[in-house]
Write a structure and sequence with these properties.
alpha/beta, Endonuclease, Chain A, nine-stranded mixed sheet, seven-stranded mixed sheet, globular, disordered N terminus, disordered C terminus
Length: 404
């Protein structure tokens, strides 16, 4: 497990971009069928639809043929879980993460979406185990939910594998005994350690890194990496996220990038949570004033979470750009440098913005009714207050210069 703190950057064996609703589930279904040794799955939502039923059947079949199958799902995201008894009867080892609204891990959730097959291939991104044509309630969507994931082979799989096992270890009955906490700290890494070079300027070869945040180890790595890359951007930034509630540092970093001539583009989800619809526009004015392009994705279909900088650096995974992902939930992202898949991610985001999303017009936005402006301001303040309460005690001040 000490490998989690060493050799953060890995050479790339193979790296493939997968798209939800098109080829992600066919890829992981094939992987589950050919698994011979182990299957480790950690996911936020494991729904009750036909797609989830198929994955459950493949997990059960693998366990029955002797494969070591371990599954972690988030209690809040997946409860009640329809397939729990079926998995357990097939011999699948199963854990909920943090049962209850407030469990032994506080309010935190595991928001990760990762799958490791035979310690040989890893799948990581933003895609849950659910039908991409249906919402969380089982109702048909107007179109496929748009999301992205990566399939990787090579040494990076060891990192993903070890990250899953560390989470599995945390969920054991005696995991919070003081001696076990100290053992994990001394055997793995010191808490709050994230002194790693994650930006654009620290390597020219194709390379790949895993950043998996929790509330003890690597608490700020995903945020730090994003700030570092934005601070070093020279040409272009594309950020896509369904839930956008950035803190002051991220807002300033994006604005400063635009002010120094970087083309900054935001593709944001819309119409899934009304409170976000009412609150997020309060941020638009300062972004539009800095010539940041904002695209709103209709119908609640956007679920991808990625940041692409200068077409040579990208991060993709489960982390949204909000307080819950940066300060509370367990997340997992891959960071890619100097690889062709970065351009593929960039073009897919830009195509979605151009073909499906609607760009926010600066003049129309400034002329919206006073009542709407007041509603945006009030709801934004309420949402920020609630997020501050939930994440209280999770903030720390030390951040390196984003332009280093």
């Amino acid at each position: 497990m000490t490998l989690l703190r060493k050799n953060r950057w890995q050479t790339i064996d193979s790296l493939e971009l997968l798209e939800g609703g098109k080829n992600y589930f066919s890829a992981i279904e094939a992987a589950l069928i050919r698994a011979q040794k182990s299957i480790y799955l950690e996911v936020y939502i494991f729904s009750a639809d036909t797609q989830a039923q198929k994955i459950c059947e493949l997990l059960s079949a693998a366990s029955l043929r002797g494969v070591d199958v371990k599954v972690i799902i988030d209690w809040f995201g997946s409860s009640p879980f329809k397939f729990e008894n079926q998995l357990k009867q097939a011999g699948v080892q199963f854990h909920y993460y943090n049962p209850g609204w407030f469990g032994r891990f506080g309010f935190s959730r595991t928001h990760r979406k990762l799958l490791v097959i035979d310690e040989h291939e890893a799948y990581l991104g933003g895609i849950n185990i659910c039908d991409d044509a249906k919402d969380a309630s089982g109702n048909s969507l107007a179109g496929l939910r748009w999301d992205l994931a990566l399939k990787a082979t090579g040494h990076i799989v060891e990192k993903v594998h070890a990250t899953f096992l560390r989470q599995w270890q945390r969920l054991q009955p005696d995991a919070l005994h003081p001696r076990n906490i100290l053992k994990r700290i001394f055997e793995q890494e010191s808490p709050w350690s994230s002194n790693h070079f994650m930006g654009l300027r620290h390597g020219s070869k194709p390379s790949l890194a895993l950043v998996a945040r929790d509330n003890l180890h690597h608490r700020r790595d995903i945020e730090r990496a994003s700030l570092k890359a934005i601070g070093q951007a020279q040409e272009e930034i594309w950020l896509v996220t369904p839930y956008f509630m950035p803190g002051r540092r991220l807002r300033k970093a994006l604005i400063h990038a635009a002010e120094r001539g970087v083309s900054v583009n935001l593709l944001l989800g819309k119409d899934e949570f009304k409170m976000l619809n009412w609150s997020v526009p309060s941020l638009y004015g300062q972004f539009l004033a800095s010539n940041i392009a904002i695209y709103e994705y209709p119908n609640g279909l956007l679920h991808a979470k990625s940041l692409v900088v200068d077409r040579r650096w990208a991060t993709l995974g489960s982390s949204n750009y909000d307080h819950l992902s940066f300060l509370l939930n367990h997340e997992a992202n891959l960071i890619i440098r100097n690889h062709e898949v970065i351009k593929e991610i960039r073009w897919k985001i830009a195509d979605q913005a151009a073909e499906i999303a609607t760009q926010v017009d600066r003049r129309s936005f400034s002329q919206r009714p006073l009542g709407e402006k007041m509603l945006n301001w009030v709801v934004y303040g309420l949402v920020r207050f609630l997020l501050s309460l939930i994440t209280i005690g999770a903030k720390d001040k030390a951040l390196p210069s984003i332009r280093d």
